[in-house]
Design goal:
By secondary structure, the chain is of the alpha+beta class. It has helices spanning 14-45, 96-154, 165-203, 212-229, 342-347, 386-402, and strands spanning 50-65, 71-76, 83-84, 89-93, 232-234, 239-242, 251-252, 259-274, 286-291, 299-307, 333-340, 355-361. 42% of the residues lie in helices and 21% in strands. α2 runs antiparallel to α3 (165-203) and α2 runs antiparallel to α4. The longest helix is centred in the N-terminal third of the chain and has 59 residues, at 96-154.
């Protein structure tokens, strides 16, 4: 049995093809219009209230560990990637020279204190010398008065022969000698008083412990005590060690960096927004951040805490000189600092320099563009080195307490 032969299909006419094309274009146009309307509605309702940039990086306090005194490295107590606590020793230098200097300063302080205490004790001795000289002067003046009286009584008797001329001459010689002795005693009194005044000038208005010579020697003891303690480099805060460059046996100078310390608990993000995005940014606006390390699965939440005082180009080592030569406009960026949530940072630690994508919700425009609050608290501080100052003060007091007081005669 033969199969039936189907009738041939005639191709669509040109008019039909044009109609199909118009329908397709119409559908595409409607889809584009609907998409544009949807995007426009989303942008008007939501999108225009957000500013986004991927030119953002994690920043933090990178503390340079530098020795305060020079010396030879004898011990390295922390290495890269190590986590250290505040006050923990990091580097130890040879302390022999510092200890010798401290011993010499302590000996000098003890000697100075003894000399000053003797100076104070000499006031009583010199006062006794003044009293002794004044007594000598009074005795010499009494001798002059007695001899003058004898001479007055005997001189009229010379004419009657009751008293010899020789006796009167002896009295006159004695009177001259007594006057000389009186003048010498008066000069001795003046000299003793001047010596007492000179000694009192060095001790008046002060005590042995507060005497300038003692204070100078005590300051030298504190200085050398600090130098002895500073051979051990301490971590000013907790954090993680990075960029250790010092080696064992190396001679380091004061102020030369030997390693860095990064405070991993106090990080922030510097987001570089285009200048055209700045009008919408305000201090206090919330921000959502995504790190390339964790991806979209981890989202950080922060707050805008400040806008930079200038563009990055303005503070570069070689700022652009746009007033000369050919000029091409380049869109500038201003760093915007965003504080991170400490709890989120602790749950998902970041590293300095990591890339971030930042989205700031700019719907709330009540914040300030420039911060008007004057900072009253330090940005960062450490109390690690206060113990060294107290120890240095204790060393000076120990030496002063060990020096015996001079005994007054």
């Amino acid at each position: 049995m033969n199969a039936p032969v189907s009738a041939p299909v005639s191709p669509p006419t040109t008019q039909a093809r044009s109609q199909l094309r118009r329908q397709g274009l119409t559908l595409i146009a409607v889809a584009v219009l609907l998409g544009g309307a949807g995007w426009g509605g989303w942008h008007w309702m939501t999108g225009r209230h957000y500013q986004t940039t991927d030119n953002a990086y994690v920043a933090g306090n990178v503390i340079q560990i530098t020795p305060q005194v020079g010396g030879t490295v004898v011990s390295i107590l922390a290495d890269d990637t190590d986590t250290v606590a505040a006050g923990q020793p990091l580097i130890r230098l040879d302390a022999a020279d510092a200890q010798l200097a401290q011993a010499q300063a302590e000996a000098q302080l003890g000697q100075t204190l003894r000399e000053v205490r003797t100076l104070f004790a000499n006031n009583a001795t010199l006062q006794a010398q003044v009293s002794l000289r004044e007594a000598d002067l009074a005795r010499a003046q009494a001798d002059v008065t007695r001899i003058e009286d004898d001479l007055k009584r005997r001189t009229p008797l010379v004419a009657d022969g009751a008293v010899g001329q020789e006796e009167v001459q002896h009295l006159r010689a004695q009177l001259s000698a007594a006057k000389s002795s009186s003048e010498a005693a008066r000069a001795a009194v003046l000299a003793a008083r001047q010596q007492l005044a000179a000694n009192q000038t060095q001790t008046e208005g002060t005590t042995p412990a507060q005497h300038p010579s003692v204070l100078r020697a005590a300051a030298r003891v504190r200085e050398t005590s600090l130098a002895s303690q500073r051979v051990e480099l301490l971590a000013p805060s907790e954090g993680q060690i990075a960029r250790r460059s010092v080696q064992l046996g190396q001679r380091v100078q004061a102020g030369s960096p030997v390693m860095s310390l990064v405070d991993m608990k106090h990080l922030w993000v510097d987001a570089n927004f285009k200048e055209g995005q700045l009008p919408a940014l305000r201090i206090g606006q919330p921000a959502e951040l995504v790190s390339d390390v964790y991806g979209d699965d981890v989202r950080y939440h922060g707050t805008v805490v400040g806008l930079g005082a200038g563009t990055g180009a303005a503070f570069s080592l070689l700022p652009a000189q746009n007033a000369t030569g050919n000029w091409i406009k380049v869109v500038q960026r201003v760093p915007v600092r965003i504080a991170l949530d400490p709890a989120e940072l602790a749950a998902h630690p970041l590293r300095v320099g990591l890339s971030m994508e930042v989205t700031v919700d700019t719907q709330d425009q009540s914040g300030k563009v420039l911060s008007e609050a004057v900072r009253t608290e330090p940005v960062a501080q450490t109390q690690v080195f206060e113990a060294q100052a107290r120890a240095a003060q204790s060393d000076a007091q120990r030496v002063m307490a060990a020096a015996p007081a001079a005994k007054a005669p």
